[in-house]
Design brief:
Layout lengths: L18 H12 L8 E2 L4 E2 L1 H8 L7 H17 L13 H12 L12 H8 L8
Antiparallel strand pairs: 1-2
Helix pairs in contact: 1-2
């Protein structure tokens, strides 16, 4: 897929959402629109109850919610590199536990610790980490 130079329309993340879209979203989440096909968010397939949490005040989000949002941020940056330049890395919640596990499971002197290539490549954005 060819990388796009700029988004097709301007996006203001602080602008209030379109009330018609939000109303339709609420109806779908509450079951008033009977399309319960799971939505693929690249971090998993989710139904209305997953999205309902996003509308519920003072509800704790799960790692899956955070990973879905992080995936969208990474995809936006990959699709529109001129608009959203890379000044850092965006990692999923899985990566932090993987890094912690690699560090704590290391046998031998800490000064001899070497990060695995697949971890470094993921952090550099060279390729996506496959969870096996």
């Amino acid at each position: 897929m060819k990388k796009k130079q700029n988004p097709s329309s301007m996006f203001d993340p602080l602008a209030p959402p379109d009330e018609r879209w939000l109303d339709t979203f609420r109806k779908w989440c509450s079951g008033l629109i009977p399309n319960h096909r799971l939505r693929d968010l690249k971090s998993g397939d989710y139904g209305p109850s997953f999205f309902w949490k996003l509308l519920t005040l003072q509800e704790w989000l799960t790692d899956d919610h955070i990973d879905a949002a992080v995936h969208m941020l990474r995809r936006r940056r990959a699709d529109y590199p001129l608009r959203f330049s890379q000044k850092g890395i965006i990692l999923s919640t899985f990566v932090t536990s993987m890094i912690n596990s690699a560090w704590t499971n290391h046998k031998g002197p800490r000064r001899n610790f070497v990060w695995e290539d697949y971890i470094l490549e993921y952090c550099r954005g060279v390729h996506h980490l496959l969870i096996v």
